[in-house]
Amino acid sequence: MAPSLTHPTAVNFIEEHDLSTSSLPMKEAADYYGKSETFTRSRTYSASHIHGYNPRRTPAFDENTHSRTRRLSHDEKASQPRRFLIDVEETIRLVLEQEDTDGDFQISVTDAGPKVMALGTATSNGFKTFDIRGTYMLSNLLQELALARDHGRKRIVLDEARLTENPVDRLSRMIKNSFWHSLTRRIDGEGLEIICADPKNRTGRVNPRIYVPHAEPAMADYYRKVARDKPHLNLDVQVLPLKPDDPSFVKSLNNKPGILALAMNESDDGRGGKILKGIPFIVPGARFNELYNWDSYFISLGLLVDGKVTMAQGMVDHFIFEITHYGKILNGSRSYYLCRTQPPFLTDMALQIFNQLDRSDVDANRAWLKRAIQAAIKEYHTIWVAEPRIDPKTGLSRYRPEGLGIPPETEATHFTHILEPFAHKHGLSILEFSEKYNNGLLKEPELDEYFLHDRAVRESGHDTTYRFEKRCANLATIDLQALLYKYEIDIGTAIREVFDDELDLEEDFSLAPFPISPEAYSRVTRESSKSRPQRSDEWFERAEFRKQMIDKYLWNENKSLYFDYDTAKEQQILYESVTTLWALWAGCASEEQAWKLVTQSLKKFEVLGGLVSGTEESRGKISLDRPNRQWDYPYVFRPPHQIMAWVGLERYGYLEDAQRLAYRFLYMMTTAFVDFNGVVPEKFDAVKLSHLVDAEYGNQGIDFKMVPREGFGWMNAAYQVGLSFLNSHMRRAVAACTSPEVFFSAANNGSEQALQDMTSDPLGLAMDSLEIVTQD
């Protein structure tokens, strides 16, 4: 009789045939690690590993030569999927101790460890070992161990497939099933503690405060009840005045910032009554822990790719709420953003979502789109073609928000170099001068002008860039004109195609005059929004007028580019910006203009990692006194410039160019993900292909321990959207981290076999090319 095998109590064993039939090694962590602990019944080896004996060998070194034999591409392959039996805490300790040489709780290419670790195989109960090699596998190991710890696991059986997972598949899976969830917020009793946290709050008061619209008394009562039921929150509930965006009032809130209430739904409370519940939304992440305007548009595109239509729809509901109660789609949902908005994307966002709604309730879908289009019309008339943003002489719109004083949400030292000369002039410290200036005790018209343009830069979303330095509020930018042209086309199309060419407006506000002229805007009386139904022909006329003004003031035939127009100096600003391509996204460029943009101007912005924000020549020289700005060369800063270009190029039939640019950007993101412990950062240096940048407030999305939890909102979206532009062959090449220069060189040379070789076994090819040197 065979001797009995002793084992710890409460241990569940799995049979060996179960190891070979592990059906879904790529399950999400909750499913993969959420089960009870399991061990194998070994027929020939002891269970000593279970009792604490660990046969793993630490890497041995002889001076600089690693003693372990290097595994080459022709090594014997396992007959079945390999799995490892792992003690979670001990292995975390070993991985960090051995591989995390810079102490940041991440395994990256910059760490100086040996990049090899032996793990015990599950079929041998840990007696036999197999080497895990390289930054990618080791960082994945650390991530998996962190996830197992999250689920309370002490020991796990880990599939090797989770360590060698195709990086494109892994990142896309993490975005869809993990990152979006981690970035989800809700403003109600359950979500207030998380959403009220504001890394930008420099007042020293961290207790949560919420501002509720004047016209929502039931919502105010709800939050007061939350404050009573959860006294530990110290929640301060404030009701806003009827006009919450008055500049003086907004400035008075600088020392008492708070979150702004957003849309809520009624739901059953389980006792036959109703209760308000916040509608979920996605935040960008890191220091940006609130709902943002244009971030949300690009995030919604990623959500739609991932099938999360309801989440995207809820974000439009919040924008409708903001337009109704705050007068505009806010820059962000904090009190200090009440005076300014951001680039307008609501119509395209709503139409994209509308096209993916469940078709089982057509009437409800139509009613929802009606609310969105009505809100967009109000925003258009009261914000974008209203003074002070409209320039009646040209008929073009500008980023020109109202506001007073110094923006309170910036870093403490952000304006030091600007304020210092004025403080010295008055014999005050910078802090003393700032307080007196903000309180109106000191008047500095030059500083007023500076902050007028600074607020405009922030409203543009491009904060900051030398393109807008000290002039943004006067600029009719190509990006804003393109967006408003798209608004006009979208609204006209929706009215004609969905609402039978007649749409009544339910909210009363003044309509902006058309045709646009200084005389029309000088009239005191304005037409009411409820005086007549909206019809498509007026919106198409507005779009045609804007296109003519774009061609007249912004298009430069000699340079084959659109430029911003300075309405004060009445001249083009010859800063070459990649937003020139937004005209393709909006459809306001002619076929000839599009051809010139693609054949003559695209190359100005295309670099190894995608499209840079502007040209190096336009940016100018950088020095200690003139530091780099994050929306200038050489940065690929966020998806707006990438996604807008991809979609615009595809719209005009330049699909290969769109695919090439998408490949470059995804290659850069994927290599960072592979080499830096799964990082998804806010921005890159696209020339150096590095996310290790320190422009302005540095990078976001990189400060995590062991496993990335969130990525960064619209960068997550850009990855998912970008993958939809790649064919299967390009996707494999990105997963193999094949450089764009190599990939497109082979493609242009027609070398199909070379392309296949690059993506079939890149590790094997790399190892075969090494010259192995043995020492005597």
From TrEMBL:
Its EC number is 3.2.1.28. One of its GO terms (biological process) is trehalose catabolic process. Keywords: Glycosidase, Hydrolase. GO terms for cellular component: cytoplasm. It is an enzyme of class 3 (hydrolase). Residues 49-78 are annotated as: Disordered. It catalyses: alpha,alpha-trehalose + H2O = alpha-D-glucose + beta-D-glucose. One of its GO terms (molecular function) is alpha,alpha-trehalase activity. SUPFAM superfamilies: Six-hairpin glycosidases. Residues 59-78 have a biased composition (Basic and acidic residues). Residues 93-121 form the Neutral trehalase Ca2+ binding domain. Belongs to the glycosyl hydrolase 37 family. This is Trehalase. It comes from Lentinula aciculospora.
